[in-house]
Design a protein that fits this description.
CATH class: Alpha Beta
Largest sheet: 8 strands, parallel, barrel
Distance between the termini: 26 Å
CATH architecture: Alpha-Beta Barrel
Radius of gyration: 19 Å
Oligomer: single chain
Length: 310
């Protein structure tokens, strides 16, 4: 996983955010659209589909989630296609804290990580102590990764120090677990704000920055992801610390996954083309990728009934 370096002080983080440059929105959108049109050959497409599977955080965040559903999802995470041993496992299963013990038991001894949302997901507005306790409890129950939400109320009202200190405290509560900070880019209002929020979260110690909760109407977008990736690139150039990127919210088709991988490669390079530095949070993407793999190999589509329901 990503190595860790000392985090910024609040004053250092404030200085970093203050000198964060504005974003050329037109240029960003044009570049994202241009890269999204890039075609890749069959061999490269199969490689990209394989990587997309390995980068998926197979996610279920519904109030009706049951232990039985988590057992089934964990089985699929380890063996996405039981009839094809060449298909790799996904990166992680992402669930609510109460179900972490079930997932941890099912995934013990496998390469699939247990990721838990925590910290008053999806609002991020509960009392700080309760948010930190929830993170600590999820880790104690077996979570390897924690997905929290940036306090947008603090960030959007200019209380950057509060937003920074809450992320930093969440990082401490994670212990050895990795921290993903959800920016909820659909609520930030501009690419300038997405870039500032990205810098603030990374300065506070985030191991990944993540686009969305998937719980509002706006999820991941190619321009938004590109803005985050450029922030990660610039943060790495300034500090030497690599930070991962996770796109989530509305990523349902293989074509979308490949477009994000193209953006990733062109912006951050080959070192980020790994589950250690890139994730796709999704609940329905996996089956579409499996169908595309079958098509590329056989020339014929398989119907969705050939695969288990996510």
């Amino acid at each position: 996983m990503l190595h860790r370096e000392p985090r910024f002080s609040p004053a250092g983080a404030a200085a970093l955010v203050a000198r964060t440059t504005g974003v050329d929105a037109v240029g960003l959108e044009e570049r994202a659209a241009s890269l999204a049109k890039r075609s890749i050959k069959r061999e490269s497409k199969l490689w990209a589909l394989d990587l997309a599977i390995r980068c998926i955080d197979l996610t279920t965040l519904e109030g009706a989630d049951t232990p039985g559903k988590i057992v089934a999802i964990c089985a699929k995470a380890v063996r996405p296609d039981p009839t094809d041993h060449s298909i790799p496992p996904v990166a992680a299963v992402c669930i609510y804290p109460a179900l972490v013990p079930v997932a941890a038991g099912q995934l013990k001894g496998t390469s699939v990580h247990v990721a838990s949302v925590a910290g008053a997901f999806p609002s991020g507005l509960g009392p700080l102590k309760e948010r930190l306790d929830e993170i600590h409890d999820a880790v104690a129950m077996g979570a390897d990764e924690i997905d929290i939400v940036l306090n947008r109320s603090a960030f959007l009202s200019g209380r950057y120090r509060q937003a920074f200190e809450e992320v930093a405290a969440s990082k401490e509560a994670c212990g050895d677990a990795h921290l993903k900070v959800i920016l909820e880019i659909g609520e930030l209002g501009s690419f300038d704000q997405v870039r500032r929020a990205s810098m603030l979260a990374m300065a506070a110690g985030a191991d990944f920055i993540k686009s969305s909760t998937g719980k509002i109407g706006t999820g991941a977008s190619l321009p938004g992801a590109l803005c985050m990736m450029e922030a990660v690139r610039d943060f790495f150039h300034e500090t030497g610390r690599p930070v991962g990127v996770k796109v989530a919210g509305g990523v349902r088709r293989s074509k979308q996954a490949i477009q994000y991988l193209v953006l990733l490669y062109e912006t951050l390079g080959a070192d980020w083309m790994t589950p250690d530095r890139f994730r796709i949070g999704a609940s329905t993407l996996l089956n579409d990728v499996l169908m595309q793999v079958k098509k590329e190999r056989s020339g014929a589509y398989q119907g969705p009934d050939y695969f288990t329901i996510d």
